[in-house]
C-alpha cells in the first residue's frame, strides 16, 4: 500500500509551494537597485530584522519621510484637478524616468505656484462677492430710502441693463474702505444701517435687534434676486437685504456688534439719488474688471494643473514605488562595517534561480565591484503559505483564506471547492431557468472583463466581478441540478422524452385525488414531469432530496477524513493515522455510512422499509428482529458489529494518542540527556531556541489529554450534528422550489386568467420583480452562505488547521493606489 501511495503524483495544486529561507548580503551602492529589481520580480518576502526599532530610528527614515511628503503634494494636485473638473489623460509618448530629487524640486515649484494662485483667487473672489453684495444692497435698499422719488424704478432698470457692461480693470483700493463712513444724520435725527445676511439667520437676527434696542428700531427686509456663493463652503446661498432705522449713537454701536456676531455684511448706501447712481456705476465697473481677472486667473490655473496632470499618474506610481523600496530597505540590517546591508526573506524554491539572476543584473547595472551574496539558510520557524492561482481558482482560494490561511504544505481545500462549492450551491438552487439568468450575468461580467478590470468599481460590484468565475460555475451547476429536478421557473418540461406515468381517467382532472399509473419505462433523466401537481409530489420530493442530502454530506465528510489521512502521511505523523484517522473513519461510517448504504439499497430494491425505525432501534434494541424492515440477509448481525465498532472507536480516539506522545517524549528526553555525556559536540550544535527544544520543555501531558478529550467529543457529537446540518440542502431546495411555484401560480397564472391586458401586465411585472429580487438575489445569497457554512465547518473541520500565514512578497504589482 505504501509503495502504491509513493507512486502517486505529487499533487502540486493540493499543497502550497515549497519555500526557502534565504539571506542577502547587498553592497550599499547596489542596495536600492537590487530591491527595486526584486520588487519588479515579486517573489521574495522580506523579514523585518529591525522590528525592535521605531520607524524614526531606521536607516532610511529620511527618504521615507520625503516620499510621504511628495505623496501629500501629489494628492493635493489630484484634489485640485478633481475640484476644477479637469480630465487630464496621461501622455501616450514614453516619458524619460525622472530622478527622485528632480521630482521633489518640480513638485515643490508646482505646489508653490498653485498655492499662490489659489490665494490670489480667494482674495479676488472675496472682493467680488463683497461688490456683488454691495450691488444688491444698493439695488434693494434704495427702495426703502427714496420710495418717494419717482426716478427710483428707472434707476433700478438702468442698473440691470448696465450689469457686466464694463470689461476694464481698475487698480484701486477697496470700495468698502473708501465708502465706509458715518451715516448722515437727517433733520429728525433718524439714522439707518443697511446690509445683507443669510436667510436662515434672519429670524434670530431680527429678534436680537428688537431686544437690544428695546423695540426702538424699524426693520425692513427684502430677498435678493440671486444666490451668492459662500466663500467658506463654496456653496450658493440665499441672502436677505435689510435696512435698520434707529436713533442714537448707542443704538448704532449695538446694531453693528449684532451684525458682526451674525455674520451680516453692512454696506453704506447714500440717501442722495445722484450719489447712489454714481456709486452703482463704480461697483458695476469693478465687478466687470474682477470677472475678467477671475476668468484669466482660472485659465492660468487650469493650464498649470493640466501641465501637472499629464504626468500625475506616472509621478504617483514612481513615488509609491520609491516609498515601497525604502520601506523594504528599512527592514534590512547594516553590518558592522556599514558597507553592506543584510536581509532575510522567504521565496518559493522554484524562484531561487530567478532571484539570483535579478541580483546579478542589479550588480551589473549599478557598476558595483562586489556582487550580492545570496545563500540558503536553515529555517526554524514555519514558512509562509503560497498557492499559485489563476483567474478561475483565485476566487475559491480567497473564500478558503477568509476562514483561515492553510498551514505550510497542508492540503488545500480550494482544489476541491472548485467543484463541490458550486455543486452544493446548485443542490439548494436547482432551477435551470434561474440558472440561465445567473449564467447571463456571469457571461456579461466575463465579456467586459478587460474593461471592468481597469475601472474602479464600487464595493458590491467589485465583489461580483471578483467572483465572476464562481458565479459562472454556480450557474452551470444550477442548470444541471435544475434539469435533474426538472424545474424551469418551477415548471416541468418533457425534455428527455415522454412521462412514465399516465392518469387513471381520460383526463388528468382527477390526478390530484386518484393518482397516477406507471405504464412505461422510467423517465430517462431527472424527475418525471408527471409528479408535478400530483398527490404524491411533496412526499416524493421530500424523500428524494432528504436522502440525497445525507448521501452528499456523508461523501463530503469522508473526503475530509481522507484528506486528513494524506496530511498525516505527508507530515509523517503515524500517530494521527493510527489513533485519529482510523477510529474516525470507523465511527462515521459504522453509523452514517451504514445509513447511506441502506438508502442506496432501498432505492435499488424498491423496498418499503422504514429507515427511521431501523436506525433508532439499532441503538435501542440491536438484537431485535427487523421483520419487514429487513433490507438484506445478515442485516441484524451487521448492525450489531457496526454498533460495537462505533463504541470501540470512541476510546480508541481518546486514550492511545496522549499516552503515545508521552512515551515518545520520555524516550527522546532520556536519550538526549545521556547523549550529552558521550556526544556533547553533536548536541551542542543544536540551537537553544529551536522549535524542538521549546516543544520538549513545554510538554504538558494534562493539556494534551484534555485537548484530545475535547477533540474526540467534538468529533462524536459533530458526526451527528454535521450530518443533520447537510439537511439544509433539502430544506433550501424545497423552499426555493415552493417559492417559485407560489410566484408562478399565485401571481403569473392568476393574473393571466383575467382578460384585462392591464392586469396581465401587472402580473408579469410583479412576477419578474419577485423572481429577480427574491429568487435571484436573496435566495442566491442564502444558498451561497449555506454552502459556505458546509465547507468551512462540516468539510474543512475534518482536516484543515488554517493557522498558517500568507506569503506576501515585496512586489510593485501588489501596491494599490491607496497605499501611500
UniProtKB/TrEMBL annotation:
Which keywords does UniProt give here?
Hydrogen ion transport, Ion transport, Membrane, Transmembrane, Transmembrane helix, Transport
Q: Which organism is it from?
A: Brassica carinata
User: What job does this protein perform?
Assistant: Essential component of the vacuolar proton pump (V-ATPase), a multimeric enzyme that catalyzes the translocation of protons across the membranes. Required for assembly and activity of the V-ATPase.
> What is the name attached to this protein's record?
V-type proton ATPase subunit a
Which subcellular locations apply to this protein? Membrane
Which InterPro entries does the record associate with it?
Answer: V-ATPase_116kDa_su, V-type_ATPase_116kDa_su_euka
Q: Which family does it belong to?
A: Belongs to the V-ATPase 116 kDa subunit family.
Give one Pfam hit by family name. Answer: V_ATPase_I
In Gene Ontology terms, what is a biological process of this protein? vacuolar acidification
Amino acid at each position: 500500500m505504501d509503495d502504491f501511495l509513493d507512486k502517486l503524483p505529487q499533487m502540486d495544486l493540493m499543497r502550497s509551494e515549497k519555500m526557502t529561507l534565504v539571506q542577502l548580503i547587498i553592497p550599499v551602492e547596489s542596495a536600492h537597485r537590487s530591491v527595486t529589481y526584486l520588487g519588479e520580480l515579486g517573489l521574495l518576502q522580506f523579514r523585518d530584522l529591525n522590528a525592535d526599532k521605531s520607524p524614526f530610528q531606521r536607516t532610511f527614515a529620511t527618504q521615507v519621510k520625503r516620499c510621504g511628503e511628495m505623496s501629500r503634494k501629489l494628492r493635493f494636485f489630484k484634489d485640485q484637478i478633481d475640484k476644477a473638473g479637469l480630465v487630464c489623460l496621461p501622455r501616450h509618448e514614453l516619458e524619460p524616468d525622472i530622478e527622485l530629487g528632480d521630482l521633489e524640486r518640480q513638485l515643490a515649484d508646482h505646489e508653490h505656484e498653485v498655492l499662490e494662485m489659489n490665494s490670489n483667487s480667494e482674495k479676488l473672489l472675496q472682493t467680488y462677492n463683497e461688490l456683488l453684495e454691495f450691488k444688491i444692497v444698493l439695488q434693494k435698499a434704495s427702495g426703502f430710502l427714496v420710495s418717494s422719488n419717482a426716478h427710483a424704478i428707472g434707476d433700478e432698470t438702468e442698473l440691470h441693463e448696465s450689469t457686466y457692461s464694463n470689461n476694464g480693470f481698475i487698480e484701486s483700493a477697496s470700495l468698502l474702505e473708501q465708502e465706509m463712513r458715518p451715516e448722515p444724520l437727517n433733520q429728525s435725527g433718524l439714522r439707518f444701517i443697511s446690509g445683507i445676511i443669510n436667510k436662515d439667520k434672519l429670524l434670530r437676527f431680527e429678534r436680537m435687534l428688537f431686544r437690544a434696542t428695546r423695540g426702538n428700531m424699524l426693520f425692513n427686509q427684502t430677498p435678493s434676486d440671486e444666490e451668492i456663493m459662500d466663500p467658506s463652503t463654496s456653496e450658493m446661498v440665499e441672502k436677505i437685504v435689510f435696512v435698520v432705522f434707529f436713533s442714537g449713537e448707542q443704538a448704532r454701536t449695538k446694531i453693528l456688534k449684532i451684525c458682526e456676531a451674525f455674520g451680516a455684511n453692512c454696506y453704506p448706501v447714500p440717501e442722495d439719488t445722484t450719489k447712489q447712481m454714481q456709486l452703482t456705476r463704480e461697483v458695476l465697473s469693478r465687478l466687470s474688471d474682477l470677472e475678467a481677472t477671475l476668468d484669466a486667473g482660472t485659465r492660468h490655473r487650469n493650464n498649470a494643473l493640466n501641465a501637472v496632470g499629464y504626468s500625475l499618474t506616472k509621478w504617483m506610481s514612481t513615488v509609491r514605488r520609491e516609498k515601497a523600496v525604502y520601506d523594504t530597505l528599512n527592514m534590512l540590517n547594516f553590518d558592522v562595517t556599514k558597507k553592506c546591508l543584510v536581509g532575510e526573506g522567504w521565496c518559493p524554491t522554484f524562484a531561487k534561480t530567478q532571484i539570483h539572476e535579478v541580483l546579478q543584473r542589479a550588480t551589473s547595472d549599478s557598476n558595483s565591484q562586489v556582487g550580492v551574496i545570496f545563500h540558503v539558510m536553515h529555517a526554524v520557524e514555519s514558512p509562509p503559505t503560497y498557492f499559485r492561482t489563476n483567474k478561475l481558482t483565485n476566487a475559491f482560494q480567497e473564500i478558503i483564506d477568509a476562514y483561515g490561511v492553510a498551514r505550510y504544505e497542508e492540503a488545500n481545500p480550494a482544489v476541491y471547492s472548485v467543484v463541490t462549492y458550486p455543486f452544493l450551491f446548485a443542490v439548494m438552487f436547482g432551477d435551470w431557468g434561474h440558472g440561465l439568468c445567473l449564467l447571463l450575468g456571469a457571461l456579461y461580467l466575463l465579456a467586459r472583463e478587460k474593461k471592468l478590470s481597469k475601472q474602479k468599481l464600487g464595493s458590491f460590484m467589485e465583489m461580483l466581478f471578483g467572483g465572476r468565475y464562481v458565479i459562472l460555475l454556480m450557474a452551470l451547476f444550477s442548470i444541471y441540478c435544475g434539469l435533474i429536478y426538472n424545474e424551469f421557473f418551477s415548471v416541468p418540461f418533457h425534455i428527455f422524452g415522454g412521462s412514465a406515468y399516465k392518469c387513471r381517467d381520460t383526463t388528468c382532472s382527477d390526478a390530484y385525488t386518484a393518482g397516477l399509473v406507471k405504464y412505461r419505462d422510467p423517465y430517462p433523466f431527472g424527475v418525471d414531469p408527471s409528479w408535478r401537481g400530483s398527490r404524491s409530489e411533496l412526499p416524493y420530493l421530500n424523500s428524494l432530496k432528504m436522502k440525497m442530502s445525507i448521501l452528499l454530506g456523508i461523501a463530503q465528510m469522508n473526503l475530509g477524513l481522507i484528506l486528513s489521512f494524506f496530511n498525516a502521511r505527508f507530515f509523517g505523523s503515524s500517530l494521527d493515522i493510527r489513533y485519529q484517522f482510523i477510529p474516525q473513519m470507523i465511527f462515521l461510517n459504522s453509523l452514517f455510512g451504514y445509513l447511506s448504504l441502506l438508502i442506496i439499497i432501498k432505492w435499488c430494491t424498491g423496498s418499503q422499509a422504514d429507515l427511521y425505525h431501523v436506525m433508532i432501534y439499532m441503538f435501542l434494541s440491536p438484537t431485535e428482529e427487523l421483520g419487514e424492515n429487513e433490507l438484506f440477509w445478515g442485516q441484524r448481525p451487521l448492525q450489531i458489529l457496526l454498533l460495537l465498532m462505533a463504541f470501540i472507536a470512541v476510546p480508541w480516539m481518546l486514550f492511545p494518542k496522549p499516552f503515545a506522545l508521552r512515551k515518545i517524549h520520555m524516550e527522546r528526553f532520556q536519550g538526549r540527556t545521556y547523549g550529552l555525556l558521550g556526544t556533547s559536540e553533536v548536541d551542542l550544535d543544536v540551537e537553544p531556541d529551536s522549535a524542538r527544544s521549546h516543544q520538549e520543555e513545554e510538554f504538558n501531558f494534562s493539556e494534551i489529554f484534555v485537548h484530545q478529550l475535547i477533540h474526540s467529543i467534538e468529533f462524536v457529537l459533530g458526526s451527528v450534528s454535521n450530518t443533520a446540518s447537510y439537511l439544509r440542502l433539502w430544506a433550501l431546495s424545497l423552499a426555493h422550489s415552493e417559492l417559485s411555484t407560489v410566484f408562478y401560480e399565485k401571481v403569473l397564472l392568476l393574473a393571466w386568467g383575467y382578460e384585462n391586458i392591464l392586469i396581465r401586465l401587472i402580473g408579469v411585472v410583479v412576477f419578474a420583480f419577485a423572481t429577480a429580487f427574491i429568487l435571484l438575489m436573496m435566495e442566491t445569497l442564502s444558498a451561497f452562505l449555506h454552502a459556505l457554512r458546509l465547507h468551512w465547518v462540516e468539510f474543512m473541520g475534518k482536516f484543515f488547521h488554517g493557522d498558517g500565514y500568507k506569503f506576501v512578497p515585496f512586489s510593485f504589482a501588489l501596491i494599490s493606489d491607496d497605499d501611500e
